[in-house]
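Co-fold these.
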Amino acid sequence: MSSKMHFLTDGLVKNNPTFVLVLGMCPTLATTTSAMNGLEMGLATMFVLILSNIVISLIAPVVPDKVHIPVYIVVIATFVTLLELLMKAYVPDIYATLGLFIPLIVVNCIVLGRAEAFANKNGIGASALDGVGVGLGFTLSLTVIGLVRELLGSGSAFGYKLLPGDGILAFVLAPGAFIVIGYLMVLFNKYLKK
Amino acid sequence: MAAKSNLVNMVLCLTLVCLVCGGLLGAVNSVTEDIIAETAQKNLVASIAAVLPEGGELSESQTSDAAGIGEYYVLSTDGAPVAYAVKSTTNGFGGALTLMVGVLPDGTVYNTSVLEHSETPGLGAKCTEEESLFRTQFKGFKGRLAVKKDGGDLDAITASTITSRAFTLAVKQAVELVSSLNGGQDNE
Amino acid sequence: MEYLLIIISAIFVNNILLAQFLGICPFLGVSNKLSTATGMSGAVCFVITLATVVTWLIDKYLLVHFGITYLRTIAFILVIAALVQMVEIVLKKVSPSLYQALGIFLPLITTNCAVLGVALSVVQKDMPLGQATVYALATAIGWGVAMILFAGLREQLAGNDVPKAFKGLPIALITAGIMALAFLGFTGIGN
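Predicted complex below.
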């Protein structure tokens, strides 16, 4: 079992989707206005990633080569729509915050990327673990970015006020997203990437 | 890895995948559809209750052609209207801003509630905070419905004049509708 | 007047790249050189406008008509993928020179979330067709403007001595942040 554990941990640091592979940057920049929003977006993506990885690893051997991309896209889009419907029904507030970025998980390069690079040549167990690992890596990155932006931009973390004052608004707005991710990437390069 | 492609298995595969996926989503949709509608209805009822005084009987939804007004509800006791809940939409900073506004027959604002907005977090989105100074000044407000910059009696949210204007305009639309409704009744 | 407002707001105030964060992947990926950035921008403008018109029609006359709007995401992404393929084939036949200029960027566009993003947001906002087309074109131009400006900046950056940990994407992202700050200055125009 331990031989399979690396599928899970690879996604966190070595193949971190945000800081190493630099995939799925649109939701990363757009939805990380607070730690909670980042966490929710990460989990939503993870849901799609795990399910699509599982299904694609199952159907890959029988899908004709030339149509494999459209088939994968349909599978991914199905799970995204499923997520959309479930979120609208059970957590409408979260759906309202993340808005357009839920349907846009379809074109998140991470999901199709893992289908192409991993799920279509590995078994169901490994693919599921890979989905969990990469999903966790993505969720972790988004939460950290959200936490930094929330802390600098409004002086709170997960909605709890930690610092006095209003914070520097620019970090909640668009420019802060680019700058925070840029600097976090610098730190990541310096201390974690070997 | 993948199977060899030929026209038959390509078409077959795509059709099959689309059918299965479409069917699955159709099934899920039929379940969630009712829940989504129910939640929306619950939110609507809650927002109406939030902007109106307690008691009385609420009418069915009424429609109006006035600009920005979606629908409105009349609260009445013994047949006489005591308050109106008006759904009013304007263009905010980031997109549509939709409010539920409670208005008394004499044109006094009873309370407000934000139904939908896409204002900037940390700036315009402050208009959703019910305890904020900006929002409390609308409770029981009767006067010139405009921000001070435009010669009105209301303080705008700091650094969010556009949102404040849009919010105020939405309230004004609602008040104007109510006064036109009452004016209409007087003429009869 | 109304159209002018849509155009200015879509290009500058709500710039799709710097304010709405759509289409970031190609923004970071192919903005190393000014010439490729220009080619990509041209291709994106073309596809976004075309895709928005086609998906708008499909939404109105198929999905809404039959009450299956929950299939919107699937339908749109398939239409966009097919459309990009078709544009590629048609361009190759009709205008080989244009194909030479834009061709290599076309396959990349399917996964550019700006395309799906614009197509979805015009139907969600219930825009009429004319307005949707203008909005799509203006948004795409806004994307191109940001892209080309950014590529110009990155060409300058490439020749500079940047600390090792900042090399490549980190410094590009920070630059983009400063550019977004500049675009924040357009806030409020048009309202």
